[in-house]
Design goal:
alpha+beta, Diaminopimelate Epimerase, Chain A, domain 1, 5 helices, two-stranded antiparallel ribbon, single chain, 16-stranded mixed β-sheet, 18 strands, globular
């Protein structure tokens, strides 16, 4: 499945159980675009004791993400289209908290998903980011690869670092992205968004995702980019984010919550052979 080009291998764990100690290996093997299926991450569909359904998302390097905006839209579409949950309003348990999604449907299938992403976390300990406790990070100078960049940082359930640039297409994302991801200021690493202002209602963005590299889209990253644009007084509180894989509509409303609306698509369904699984996760039956 994919959400605005951010693609995932979705595994229905209400049917197939993956041992906890094998999940990271499965993620690494499945996400490999040459030797595996190919994806920006794997999503596990699970039952929940605190919400309607539970989502877990693992990056191509095997690390587990707290939350994934494009992933949760794909998750919700899968659960509804495959009749695991039949209401158009769904609560989803994630490592970043319980999220509420509203499904826009036609012909019994989900066409788009609006996600209540919760409140942005703006203080350093919440991101987390080193520095003066209980301070915000807005247009703060940070030395990266021998240069000083102005960064705005926050958490959307996972850490984000936003950099405003003049021309996002020409910016060396593949060089600066990993430098910021692994910067000593971020004890849990960080996702990085490079943002070009179009007007007060639109921005363009490229993203370097923690544990994945550059991807075509990032839902939590689009939310972070919109929040950073508003905090820096560059845009209004409703913003269309143009990503390489498509557009996401982000709203930061008076209740201090972020709402993200965007597409989700199922590309194909298949099964992986036992011999392949054993190569990815030796010893798994």
């Amino acid at each position: 499945m994919h959400g605005a080009g951010n693609d995932f291998v979705v595994i229905d764990c209400t049917k197939d159980i993956i041992p906890e100690d094998q999940i990271s290996r499965i993620a690494i093997g499945a996400c490999n675009r040459h030797l595996g299926i190919g994806a920006d991450g794997i999503i596990l569909v699970l039952p929940s004791r605190v919400a309607n359904m539970r989502m877990r998302m693992f990056n191509p390097d095997g690390s587990e993400a707290e939350m994934c905006g494009n992933g949760i839209r794909c998750f919700a579409k899968y659960a509804f289209d495959h009749k695991l949950f039949t209401d158009v309003v769904m609560s989803v348990e994630t490592r970043g908290g319980v999220k509420t999604v509203k499904l826009n449907t036609a012909g019994g299938k989900v066409q788009s998903v609006r996600v209540d992403m919760g409140e942005p976390r703006l203080l350093r300990p919440e991101i987390p980011m080193k520095g003066i406790a209980d301070s915000r990070v807005i247009a703060e100078p940070l030395k990266v690869a021998g240069k000083k960049l102005e960064v705005t940082c926050l958490s959307m359930g996972n850490p984000h670092c936003v950099v405003f640039v003049d021309n996002v297409d020409l910016y060396p994302v593949e060089k600066i992205g990993p430098e910021l991801e692994n910067h000593a200021s971020f004890p849990q690493r960080t996702n990085v968004e490079f943002v070009e202002l179009v007007n007060q209602q639109e921005i363009r963005m490229r993203v370097w995702e923690r544990g994945a590299g550059e991807t075509l889209a990032c839902g939590t990253g689009a939310c972070a980019a919109a929040v950073a644009s508003i905090l820096n007084e560059k845009t209004a509180r409703k913003v269309t984010v143009h990503l390489r894989g498509g557009d996401l509509f982000i709203e930061w409303l008076g209740d201090n919550r972020i709402y993200m609306t965007g597409p989700a698509e199922e590309v194909y369904e298949g099964k992986v052979g036992t011999s392949v699984i054993k190569k990815w996760a030796p010893g798994m039956t």
